[in-house]
User: Fold this.
Amino acid sequence: MLDLAISRRAVLMGAGAAAAWLASPARALLQAAGKVQVPAFVDQLIGRMTLEERAGQLQLMASAWGGGSALSLNPPGNGSDFAQQVNEARQGLLTGVFNGNGARMARILQTAAVKQSRMKIPLIFAADIIHGHRTIFPVPLAEVATFEPELARRTAEAAAFEASGAGIDWTFSPMVDVARDQRWGRGVEGGGEDPLLGRLFAAARVRGFQGTDLASNEHLLACIKHFAAYGAGESGLDYNVVDMSMRRLREVYLQPYEAGFEAGALSAMASFNEINGVPSTGNHWLMTDVLRGEWGFQGFVVSDYTGDEEMIAGGYAKDGRDAAKLAFLAGVDMSMQSGLYRQHLPGLVRSGEVPEARLNQSVRRVLALKSMLGLFEDPFGRIDEKRETARSMLPRTRALAREAGRKAIVMLRNEGDLLPLPRSGKRIALIGPFAAGAHDLVGPWVVYGDDSKAIDLAAGMRAAVADPGLITVTQGCGVDQPLAGGLEQAVATARAADLVVLAIGESSDMSGEAQSRTEIVVPAPQQQLADAVSAVGKPTVVVLKHGRALALEGAVANAPAILATWFLGTETGNSIADVLFGAFGPSGRLPASFPWKSGQEPYYYAHKPTGRPNPPGELQPYKAHFRGVPNSARFPFGHGLTYGKIEYSGLRLSAPSMPMNGSIEVEATLSNRGKRAAEEVAQLYIHDRVASITRPVRELKAFRKLALAPGQSELVRFTLTPADLTFYGLEDRPVVEPGTFDVWIAPSAEAEGVRGAFDLLA
Ligand code: BGC
Assistant:
């Protein structure tokens, strides 16, 4: 007996070691390249599955446990109760569930799938881990304001660590939709208005979530969403149609998706919108020709929620059967929540409308990913109730949230060096609906995070000063409505103080899905509060809370100091206090332009000059601008001040021209003439003066964050190659044309910084 036991173990250990030795480095390399291995057993399994079981592998549903968190985040779908869901797992009619409730729930469902179903295929557990699991990091747009993709990689990695500890295998993230219209509510989930930043953050987040080995129980499968151009809906209205040139689609909107796939993302989510008349979910050109044909994507595609079914209301599909057929044949492998695939795919195959080989191909993709996630080897590898608790909100994760939070803060203005505030000796009035309280801290699109575990501004500020008793807090008004006596109380509190901190802006539910706004302003009661409080005449710092760029007005726009603080998550109050009191110097930069007025939207820095450009800041008659409003931003993309005083000088090019097969170096000196250390983000922009397709007034091509001590000067050098000067030409293919290019190294997209020009030679 003993011998047998030993020899069995030895065999198992030998096989395991060999597999680990063989598989691990190879798996890491393949994964980093976005390559999928299909193990031989997958086709054997497929060969034994009924049509219903195969369609079941392509059907994902919201978790029905306890009513299901998913059901409150999304419109009610074709949900079932949990007992029924367990039954579906037993019958092999379910590939997995999303937004469920932790390891306990996952264990029940997984047991039904791998122990009680005929094929014993493990389920996959998905969730919207958008900016954290239990520890909530800044909203994705805020993280982009750090201009530090590596930081986003680290927060994604930390989120994956927590979430995979709670039984989650797959995140519906990163959302990489370029958003150039601030009325749209979902810009908060994405990478801002610029394709280069979008690319860098998409890739960083994918690497953070997926790590180097998907099979480890510390990582998640990433999902690039929403493919494609969801951020370009007409007038910023969520779900609205997109109608745009192929050139713009490729040059701007497709960029971050492509970068995410290049970084190895192995799943994708179709977007709700149509593009040029064809819904993405039914768009073969997009889902197959571009995604798989051009980009070589090998993972699987899931619909966004009931996006397949929505093609009926959208006027593209006749009925559910037609919708399932159109979506599936377009290249959407898996259906979320409508139930249409498991309902109709078997019949569609039987009638010959969907080739069986196509069905098998999609099932193969899904099973191959389940295998890469290690689910066949160990279906319970991520499901461990003890580990779920042990990994939750660790001090090091919270410290990372605090670091990300303070780096995401953008100082828009600081007249007379009002900031940083003194830590002692001053009475501070902290006023506004976001001054205190466990609300609006973690921000939109949070499934598992909790405001009650987050630090509010009052607590953060009190912890940072010498005498917390000198801080007086009053609400003043609600987010959207006045408060009886609130204004009077606020004015009295301001009068009795030396300094005012005004915490105003948007609540969490004013951005996110289905939260488009017509006016991107601070709500009227808060604007009145700001006007009344600032009339008291005390030095006032505005601390904005927001999920988008805003059009600031009145006393808010004119405040001597303004901090853009977004939604910073669990460590909100500490992160803001770090910057307010100077423990950390502000280093964030705007990833989206703050316009002068809502009516300028969509406003983005990389617009075209038009035949009648207005000189910056001027309002010349018959030149492009809205009545009374400069054709520029109040606070442009890339803008952000530091506690130093940074000067740009001495732009130098390594040569007056660049040959077609060469490169050119552009350098400038940055000097900190201030008394405090600073982290400056030097940005390199170009403008192609004359081209066969008109080019934007500026395009960001590179940036670098550098630390400058008081009095320190540093040379910053960038290299440009012809690839940086490429655009989509008349034939919708990348071209580089000889000619003259302006080049800037500047502190924002609309600041002059230092400027030069060079020729690209034929
Ligand atoms: C959203 C997706 C999300 C999905 C599942 C949809 O409404 O558009 O971003 O991943 O719901 O929660």
User: Anything to note?
Assistant: The pocket of beta-D-glucopyranose is lined by residues 70, 73-74, 99, 128, 172, 225, 304-305, 513 (CB under 6 Å). Residues 351 and 595 are 55 Å apart (CA to CA).
